[in-house]
Design brief:
elongated; disordered N terminus; single chain
Amino acid sequence: MSSKAASAPENLLDELQSTLAHGTVARRVEALRRVTDLFINGAVDYSEAQIGLFDDVFQCLITHIELSAKALLANRLAPIDVAPPQTIRTLALDEAIEIAGPVLSKSERLDDEALIETARNRSQAHLLAISTRRVLSGAVTDVLVLRGNDEVIQSTVNNPGAEFSERGFTRLVNRAEGDDNLATCLGLRPTLPRHLYLKLIAKASETVRQRLEAAHPKQAGDVPMAVREATRRARSAKVAITKQTEIAHALVKSLFEEGRLDEHQVTQFAEAGKFDEANAAIAALASVPVATAENMMVESRAEGVMILAKVAALSWSTVKAIINMRDDLSGGEPTDLLACRETYERLRPSTAQQVLRFHRMQQATASAPAA
C-alpha cells in the first residue's frame, strides 16, 4: 500500500473539521460522497485501524444528512465485505427501509446480534429484507418466523440459505395449516424433522400432496397419503426421510441387534428430545415396523404412545418421558399426565396387542395399491 493511500484518510480529517463544524448539509453530502469514493477505491488495502478511522468519519457525516444520501451510502457499502462495521450497523437499524434495506439484505458485515435486534424492533419491510440474505442462521429465522407476516414467512422458507431450529420448524408447520404454498415449501425442505413432516402431511390438502408428487416424480408412490385425524394412516415416505433420520434408525437397529437396546436407552432418547431414535427404539421393542410406530407416535392424543409402550412392557416413567418429548416438539398444549398414567396402569397388554393389530391392519389397507 502506498504512503499516499495510507495517509489519505488522515489528511482528509483536517478538511472535514470545518465541514462538520460550519458546513451546510450540501457540503456534508459532498464530503460523504468523497469519503465513500476514497474508501471503496482502496477498501481491499486498508488495515483494520484505517477502516475504523473511516467508520468514525462516516458516523460523523451521516448524523445530519437527508434520507436519499444515506440510502445511496447504504447501497454503495452493502456489497463490500470490509465495510466499516459500526456504520453498517447504524444503517441497518435505521427506521427508513430505503436506508436499512440494502444493508440488511446484502451486507456480510452484519452479525446475528444486529440482525436479531433489527428483526425484533423494526417493520415487516425490514424483516422481509433480512429474509433474502444469502445465509440465515436458526437464531435469526426464529425471530422472522415469530414476528413475520405471510410475505416474510414465505420469503424465509423459500430461501435456500436459511436454517431453522426445531422450534422454528414447529411454528411453521402449525402456521402452514390451510396455507398450501407454505405447506408445499415446508414439505420440500430437506432438513424438516421427520415427526414434523408427518404432522404436516397429516393436515395437508390434496393440492399439497399433488405438488409434492410433482416435485418428486420418481418417488411419487412414496409420498404419504392424507392422514385423517381419526386413523393417522400416513405411509412411510423416502422423500421425507432425511439423512439424519436414516442415521438414527441405523443406530437403533445396531443397538437392538447387539442386545444393548433397553428401556433406559429409550428414556435417554426421549429426555434428549431425539424423536427419530425414540420412535425407532419403541418400534423395535414392540416388534412393529418403524412406520407403524411413527403413525401412532404423531397422533394428537397420547393413546398411540401408551399402546406401543404397553406392548413393549415399558414403565410409566419411560412413557412419561416420551409424552413430554412429544409435547416439547409439538409446541402444543401439555398432556394431562395424571389422566394418562391412570389410563396406562389400567391398560392390559392383551388389549394393547389387539389395538396394535388394528393399527397395522389400517396401515396395510392404506398402503395397498388402488384396485
